[in-house]
Amino acid sequence: MKKKLVSVLLTSAMAASLLAGCGNNAADTAGDVADAVEETANDAAEAVQDAAEDVAEDAAEVVEETAEEATEEATEEATDAGDVDYGTGEIKVWVADNVVDFTNEQITKFQGDHPEFAGYTVTVEPVGEGDAAGNMITDVEAGADIYAFAQDQIARLVTAGALEVVEDSNAEAVKAENDAGAVSAATVGGTLYAYPITSDNGYFLYYDKSVVSDPSTLEGIVADCEAAGKNFYFEINSGWYQTAFFFGAGAELTYDTDDEGNFTKCNSTYASDAGVVALKKIAELASSKSFQNGSSVGEATNVGAIVDGTWDAQAAKDLFGDNYACAKLPTFEGSDGKTYQMSGFGGFKLLGVKPQEDDNKLAVCDALAAFLSSEEVQLARYDAVGWGPSNIAAQQSDAVKADEALSALAEQLQYTIPQGQYPGDYWSLATSLGDSVISKELTVDSSDDDFKKALEDFQATCEGYAQ
């Protein structure tokens, strides 16, 4: 095609040369030259068009060949991925006794959806969240490959080498799909070590809505209960419940541990202005004629309101009937004139994966743990046994949102801290602190110095547990 184009251009040039050399005959030959030029121009245009068509055809062929090669390559890669041999083996799973059957059902579904993992036999054993960590730490090698545990045990499990870091892509999903409290509970030193499966261990307010008109403030709740001659229950001599006041006012009490789980440091600011505000408010509550020390609906009488957990939801429904209502914990006004949101401990169930020598087995364990903690399974678990989801989308499901107790707890957990590890003696010491108010050793009329002295003694003893 290039040769044809050159030929046409040469013909045009010769015609122009002839015209220039024959001046006297120009008039006679002008018409002939014009015709020649016109024909040459037409030939040139046709040549250019032909060249363009040839280029387009060549380009189309290249694109088609490239696309075919890319398709073949992608098909080969997909085939190779599907042909991954994960090998064979056994996977042991520990969960609470009341979800063993449920977990077996979900694993069967998982295996049906993932034939590539067919070489693995999964066995589910009943080991509760409270026992799993102790068993794992005692003998990691003999422990489960995947196990559920309470969030306050995570630091011990990490230091014992019983938890594999959550795989990167799974970690991104966990952080995006679960509530902040659950993600925090599954994290140690900025690293995610577990898969959250519940956000349902904590306390909030149950109340009789014919008695309590506004559950948003502690002062309002107490006033309504007093006016109606009803009781308001709060377990002020519990190291779990009384933190609602101390943490809410801004005081701190946590412990650091070493690799063996020994307590190495107590981080406490109870002996502070914030601690005084909290303890004085506890004494003020105890001075009300409506106050009763306790946290169990089943043991309460003449109840206007009670701070309790989801485990007593049905009992509360039976007690209050049509007047049954729930809310997050209220705010309270401190002796310093400031308003504080009651806080406290939050509790979460987590799913951990044990480190594996076989990378293929680890991949299978990671995939199974991600599935068992997914939105789909969390919702199914709620339907089966009533466990409250940590998955944000699951929390927004119609069924979970209709659960007033879980909704109230979910709101409250935004203001709590995940419960860590505490010495056994802390709990009895906290009981003594609350008892000093119940026995009126400390009263609403006690001086700030009296409150401060009680808190200094309390804090010094707490610090002594870590020496």
What topology emerges from the helices and strands here?
Blueprint (H helix, E strand, L loop, with lengths): L1 H20 L4 H57 L6 E7 L4 H14 L6 E7 L2 H10 L7 E5 L3 H6 L8 H10 L2 H6 L1 E2 L2 E2 L2 E7 L2 E5 L9 H11 L2 E3 L9 H7 L3 E5 L5 E6 L4 H14 L4 E2 L10 E6 L4 H8 L3 E4 L3 E3 L5 E3 L3 E9 L5 H14 L2 H11 L6 H4 L2 H4 L2 H9 L4 E2 L5 H15 L9 H17 L3
Parallel strand pairs: 1-2, 1-3, 8-11, 8-12, 16-17
Antiparallel strand pairs: 3-16, 4-5, 6-16, 7-12, 7-13, 9-10, 14-15
Helix pairs in contact: 1-2, 9-10, 10-18, 17-18
Description of the structure:
By secondary structure, the protein is α/β, with parallel strands linked by helices. It has 3 domains: 2-82; 90-200 and 348-401, 3-Layer(aba) Sandwich (D-Maltodextrin-Binding Protein, domain 2); 202-346 and 419-464, Periplasmic binding protein-like II (D-Maltodextrin-Binding Protein, domain 2), CATH 3.40.190. Helices cover 51% and strands 17% of the residues. The protein has 18 helices and 17 strands. It has helices spanning 2-21, 26-82, 100-113, 129-138, 154-159, 168-177, 180-185, 218-228, 243-249, 273-286, 313-320, 359-372, 375-385, 392-395, 398-401, 404-412, 424-438, 448-464; strands at residues 89-95, 120-126, 146-150, 187-188, 191-192, 195-201, 204-208, 231-233, 253-257, 263-268, 291-292, 303-308, 324-327, 331-333, 339-341, 345-353, 417-418. Strands 1, 2, 3, 6, 16 and 17 form a 6-stranded mixed beta sheet that branches. The chain has a 5-stranded mixed beta sheet with strand order 11-8-12-7-13, with helices on both faces. The protein has a two-stranded antiparallel sheet with strand order 4-5. Helix 1 (2-21) runs antiparallel to helix 2 (26-82) and helix 10 crosses helix 18. The longest helix is centred in the N-terminal third of the chain and has 57 residues, at 26-82. The chain starts with a helix and ends with a helix. The model is unreliable at 1-31 and 74-82 (pLDDT under 50).
